[in-house]
Amino acid sequence: MRTTNYLLSTLREAPADAEIISHQLMLKAGMIRKSAAGIYSWLPLGLRVLRKVEAIVRAEMDAAGAQELLMPGVQPAELWAESGRWDHYGPELLRIRDRHERDFCLGPTHEEVITDLIRREIRSYKQLPANFYQIQTKFRDEIRPRFGIMRAREFLMKDAYSFHLDEASLRETYQQMHTTYTRIFERLGLEFRAVIADTGAIGGNASHEFHVLAESGEDAIAFSDASDYAANVELAEAAPPAGEPAAATEELRLIDTPEAKTIADLVEQHGLPIEKTVKTLIVKAADGGLLALLVRGDHELNAVKAARLAQVAEPFEFAGEAEIRAAIGAGPGSLGPVNLPIPCVVDHSVAAMSDFGAGANIEAKHYFGINWGRDAELPEVADLRNVVAGDPSPDGQGTLVIRRGIEVGHIFQLGTKYSSAMKATCLDENGTAQTLTMGCYGIGVSRVVAAAIEQNHDDRGIIWPAAIAPFELALLPINMHKSQRLRDAVEKLYAELRAAGIDVLLDDRRERPGVMFADMELIGIPHRIVFSEKGLDAGQLEYRARPDSENQNIPLEGAVDFIRAQLASV
RNA sequence: CGGGGUGUAGCUCAGCUUGGUAGAGCGCUGCCUUCGGGAGGCAGAGGUCACAGGUUCAAAUCCUGUUACCCCGACCA
């Protein structure tokens, strides 16, 4: 491809509303343009990347025996009514009506359509198991689309649905998809982790999310430095500390703390180590009253874990200040376990504390030197906090490291949620109808593009992993318009590279070198060759890989082989 | 949905307080010079100042309404 025949719409400055680096770079590199909030066009350069991601996903899904099909983007309301989701999906489902006043929606996912299709097509256990996938545009009317393509309303997704006669077969395909996803993200050249995920309302069955690791990720994930264990921080278990709490060495004392409203104040004004403080959080209880949850001052309450306690009201909700004062007689900032008039659950790490400080349940006073047993009965103990870096791994191997991740894939075992609602059955060996068991497996194809940039960029622009770069190599002739000899040499190599099947971009614009360098670095082409008169005199070209800062002189003769070797070495 | 902010040239923004008929830098077109890290000069093109109404002799500027977009929060995955 020649730049003079290609829409290379690079921008010097990114539009002001682009917040994260991938969004800025995708706009600056001319990959995407916005049509409306969360809705984008892909320019030729961006589409090349998207297609490369798609091709890898498709190849690996095919290799795993999945069959590609394509389902409609517009779906009839009847199917959603059948599964019950027409009423339950909420405003994220964009509903539309046709000229005959019939209801439809723009598909945010395709469980209904595939289940409808398969219940008609699959009659016998002999056709199972089967796994169908598509790569298709989805629409979710997000309340707040943001971060460009990362959290768009319209996005490209690979979604797959598998069908089985029993759980064992489902588990087998699930495991196979886990392996396939691992291969896909390895081939994409991204640093990623498969993490144990929340199974949500479906419950019970296994689920994993695949996260691309990047500082800007929306999810915190915890993984072991010594094993495969990885989980969303929301789900990672905090192991109870070993051993008994240390014996009391201090007397209980009531201290005036008029200026201490927060843990930070307490630490700063009274010289208490933060690990010797306790946070008391009040939530609504299942019985209609209030419940106190205690975590150490330096820990965070984990709402997912708290919501699982039987004593906690559903949905999980913090109590208001007025309610707290009515029940306890003191406001937030002065609460603690001593003389607490409401039920209480404490985190494991709190149960292990001694000689600690907490609110006195008296306005503007704290108790210091609190010890369980002596000053307050130890209440129920549970896992209530987010894990932190350095905690022991729940599988007993190594300690936890916390990184941020971008969710790009999700696999889970659906079971019979849709097949039973929609009566999708087939006959087993005995001729009896069995409700199909299902799994589903998604990859956010367009999000992968943004995630790859979040993980791989520098201050000059994008650094594409080789497998998904829009072009593999850039040819940059300097002052080609002034030298026919240079032009001939460039054209010759360009033709040879193309004949060798290399994805090459020839910058034949009459631009100054600085402009070419800046553009090629911005759009992230992994390899570049610079042609100059001076080099030709010496029979040499300059080669540089994208992240390097040094040029390498290579002989003009055999340049194609050299490039081939460089491409292969990545 | 609640709170906040912004809409002026393709992009980044000034002008608005104090009303007087539209600006800069970058980008774009042409010519000249330059030519190894986003060059310089000259000449151009390009704007219903988001939209509608109002006040006024006069509105980008003041007032009202609408709309779009952005940020924070809640929500969702």
Chain-wise SSE layout:
Layout: H1 21-28, E1 32-36, E2 39-42, H2 44-63, E3 67-68, E4 74-76, H3 77-83, H4 85-88, E5 95-97, E6 103-106, H5 111-121, E7 130-139, E8 154-164, H6 167-188, E9 192-196, E10 207-213, E11 219-224, E12 230-232, E13 253-256, H7 263-270, E14 278-284, E15 290-296, H8 303-308, H9 321-328, E16 344-347, H10 348-351, E17 356-359, E18 365-370, E19 380-382, E20 400-415, H11 417-421, E21 425-427, E22 433-435, E23 437-444, H12 445-455, E24 457-458, E25 461-462, E26 473-477, H13 484-499, E27 504-506, H14 513-523, E28 527-531, H15 533-537, E29 540-545, E30 552-555, H16 559-569
Parallel strand pairs: 3-7, 15-16, 16-19, 26-27, 26-28
Antiparallel strand pairs: 1-2, 4-6, 5-6, 7-8, 8-23, 9-10, 10-20, 11-12, 11-20, 13-18, 14-15, 17-18, 20-23, 21-22, 24-25, 28-29, 29-30
Helix pairs in contact: 1-12, 2-6, 2-12
The chain binds one RNA strand of 77 nucleotides through residues 11-17, 19, 34, 36-37, 90-92, 140, 142-144, 146, 151, 200, 407, 410, 478-479, 482, 511-519, 521, 530, 532, 534, 542.
Shape estimate: globular
Uncertain runs are none
Biggest β-sheet, characterized? 9 strands, mixed
How many DSSP helices?
Answer: 16
E-strand count: 30
Strand content: 25-35%
Tell me the distance between the termini. 22 Å
Helicity range:
25-40%
Enzyme class: ligase
Subcellular location: Cytoplasm
EC number: 6.1.1.15
Domain Aminoacyl-transfer RNA synthetases class-II family profile: 38-465
